[in-house]
Amino acid sequence: MDLREQIFEESILGEINNVITDVHKSNGDIQNRGHVLAISMMCALDAIASHGYRKHHFADFIVAHFPADYHAYAVQIFELYRNSLVHSWNLFEVSIYPDSSGVRIEGGTLAFGLLNFFDALVQGTGDFLERLAVDAVLQKNTLARYDKLKRTAKP
Q1: Beta-carbon neighbour count of residue 86 at 10 Å?
Q2: Residue 115: helix, strand or coil by DSSP?
Q3: DSSP string, 53-101
Q4: Chain centroid to CA 99: how far?
Q5: Which pLDDT score is estimated for 64?
Q6: What distance, in Å, lies between the first and last C-alpha atoms of the chain?
Q7: Residue 88 near residue 101, CB atoms below 8 Å
Q8: Based on CB atoms within 10 Å of each CB, which residue in 37, 44, 48, 99 is the most buried?
Q9: CA distance 24 to 67
Q10: Beta bridge partners of 112
Q11: What tens digit of pLDDT does each residue of 96-131 get?
């Protein structure tokens, strides 16, 4: 496992999985922990996607690596979930559920279960890492992102 895989799979996704596991142990489900988990998942997706994609990295990553049922909603997930959760701590225009229900339009509103989204994020990250091994554009973008991040390190 290279450093990038270790960061993505252990530090980012592993930490979120630890929280999900801990919440299940203490509560029996993830009820009443949705916003905190959703925010961490949106931030994780944003961070991972920024390694391989540029201008619309969040939505581009969903279309390229998430299961097909998420593709049509990539921009909405960015605008209505990521932006609203991270910047305003609200979900007035969409719904999340503390379960594994799939992404769908429900009464005119985009909805999905957080556990389903997390599974899609894990699957998407795995797919990204597999493609990274053979895709020259993803390699170039990832190296550029890594170099940019590395320059921020203090000696």
Answers
A1: 13
A2: helix
A3: --TTHHHHHHHHHS-HHHHTTHHHIIIIIIIHHHHHS--TTSEEESS-P
A4: 16
A5: 97
A6: 26
A7: no
A8: 48
A9: 25
A10: 96
A11: 999 999 999 998 899 999 999 999 999 999 999 999
Residue 147, both tokens: 């170099």
Instruction: Identify the residue whose tokens are 């390229």.
Output: 64
Which residue matches tokens 């509103």? 109
User: Which run of H or of E encompasses 148?
Assistant: helix 136-151
Which string of DSSP letters, residue by residue, matches 6-68? HIIIIIIIIHHHHHHHHHHHHHSS-TT-HHHHHHHHHHHHHHHHHHH--TTHHHHHHHHHS-H
Per-residue pLDDT averaged across 26-37, rounded? 86
Q: Tell which residue, 57, 61, 59, 72, has the closest CA to residue 110.
A: 72
Furthest CA-CA distance within the chain: 53
Provide the 3-class DSSP secondary structure of residue 138: helix
β-pairing verdict for 95-97 and 104-106: unpaired
